[in-house]
Amino acid sequence: MDAGLLLANYPYVFAAFLFSLGWLIILTQSNLIKKVIGINIMESGVFLLFLAEGNIKGARPPLVDPDLTGVVYANPLPSALILTGIVVAFSITALALSIIIKIYQSYGTIYAHRLLRSLE
């Protein structure tokens, strides 16, 4: 693999790494809190991917000036979607952690394999 190509696309590579790391944590960890952390790491990878895709080098802020012609403006939609995604991710994390607290109070464990054994 060409190192220059890898360095030129580092946001995409890092986003894929974050997503894969989060996926690995979800699959390998039995602790429910670690699974929530893995989901958050995956979400960070997706957010980085969207921001990297929406980035245009040399683009101006989206404030249209009628005197300028042939100017490339940045699209504000990816940033707005990421801000919304961050709020949703925070809400889902808070909900998941509150459910984990209730599970611990009810069953005395936050490990998935122990929880499954106690439910059988």
Labels describing this entry:
mainly alpha, 120 residues
User: Fraction of residues in helices?
Assistant: over 70%
Report the biggest beta sheet as strand number plus sense, adding barrel if it closes: none
- Low-pLDDT ranges: none
Write down the CATH topology: Helix Hairpins
Hey, roughly how much beta strand do the residues contain? under 5%
* Secondary structural class: mainly alpha
Using only CA atoms, what is the Rg? 20 Å
- How far apart lie the N and C ends? 50 Å
Number of domains: 1
CATH class: Mainly Alpha
**Average predicted local confidence, pLDDT:** 89
Label the CATH architecture.
Orthogonal Bundle
Number of strands: 0
Shape field: elongated
Helices and strands, in order, run as HHHHH
Number of helices: 5
Topology:
Blueprint: H1 3-8, H2 10-28, H3 32-54, H4 77-107, H5 112-119
Helix pairs in contact: 2-3, 3-4
Description:
With 120 residues, this protein is an all-alpha fold. The chain has one domain: Helix Hairpins, CATH 1.10.287.3510. The chain contains 5 helices and no strands. The longest helix has 31 residues, at 77-107. It is elongated, with a radius of gyration of 20 Å.
Task: Describe the structure concisely for a colleague.
The protein is an all-alpha fold and 120 residues long.
